[in-house]
Amino acid sequence: MPPVRVAFPEALKVAGSGHVYAETDGGVLSIDIAHRTVELIAAPQLDAFKNFVAVPGLLVVKQVDDPQGFLVTAQGELRPLPSEFGGSGRLYSGEGETLWVVPEQPTDGRRLVTRLSTSGETPRVLSRRALSAVYDLPDTDGAGHLLTSKANTLYIVTPRSTKRLRGWRPQWQKIGLGPTAVLVRTCPRCGVTQRSRTGTKAPATPQGLKAVDRLTSQYNSGDDGLISANGRYLAITMTAKGDDHTRIMLVDLATGRTMQVPGTLHDVNANDQYGWLEGKTPRLLAVSDRHLWIVDPANGSQQALSGFVFDRVAVAS
């Protein structure tokens, strides 16, 4: 079935490039920012826990524990999942056109972490590394590497090394992470502070950090906060104490302004429920109450993409 053209949302008519993929009840919605086109691609429905990962030019969808899955190209073509992606494990976006493949369960006390090139017709293995099972199952670090932990200490896994996150101490609690900065609470009663990952000054102010501290003190929150690439905005999931509904909150780290994305998350795993579309002014793409919300944190506007029921979203710069 050929892709079906859909009206381009006004809220995404921004300068820049990037690609947004959203899982709907009818397939995958593919949104090309630079060319301002939207297409609905009919795709198989996978019921089990799945990877929904975007890299430049490609979306990879695969069930975690078996080879079932498919690819969607930026041109709207649906392809079978190559055998290189078909093994048991989780997929994470890497730098540029690369993917990490990480087994969920270690073998003989280690995980064999594979890094693949996704350019061209056939994926190509770039490197393999054995990661000791003393490290937890990783997640993405927002900059194309993996983030893992051992003994309450965070480590960054690159193609060649596993190093402690700059200056990290075991008693610290991670609040949010982005390509340029990390927000931490350095002790249980300490306020939230910021640490640069790049050596350059980030735009967070005491007022912005106090707003994060206030939110994380009032609500139950995890450590899944995502900081935009420009370091200015934080998106983080929050659950009211005594409540089982999870919401997404945004904080302007420069001004302290906070806002809530309407609705609640339908999935316990928030990794594929929201992400930043980078540009001169970042946009947050978030799935809540099975709507896809487009949020401009600079002016507070929030627009839901109508006509579909959504489950997941992935963004490729």
Ends: how far apart?
A: 27 Å
User: Structural class, from secondary structure content?
Assistant: mainly beta
Give the helix tally. Answer: 1
Secondary structure: number of strands: 29
Strand content: over 45%
Unreliable spans: none
Estimate the helix proportion, in percent: under 10%
What is the H/E order? EEEEEEEEEEEEEEEEEEEHEEEEEEEEEE
Shape: globular
- Quaternary structure type: single chain
Please state the CA-atom Rg, rounded to the nearest Å.
19 Å
Largest sheet: 8 strands, mixed
Kindly state the mean pLDDT as a whole number? 91
Topology:
Blueprint: E1 4-6, E2 19-24, E3 27-32, E4 37-41, E5 50-55, E6 58-63, E7 69-73, E8 78-80, E9 90-93, E10 98-102, E11 110-117, E12 124-132, E13 139-140, E14 146-150, E15 153-157, E16 162-164, E17 173-177, E18 181-185, E19 192-196, H1 206-218, E20 219-221, E21 225-227, E22 233-240, E23 246-252, E24 258-260, E25 274-277, E26 283-288, E27 291-296, E28 301-305, E29 310-316
Parallel strand pairs: 17-21
Antiparallel strand pairs: 1-4, 2-3, 2-29, 3-4, 5-6, 6-7, 7-8, 9-10, 10-11, 11-12, 13-14, 14-15, 15-16, 17-18, 18-19, 20-22, 21-22, 22-23, 23-24, 25-26, 26-27, 27-28
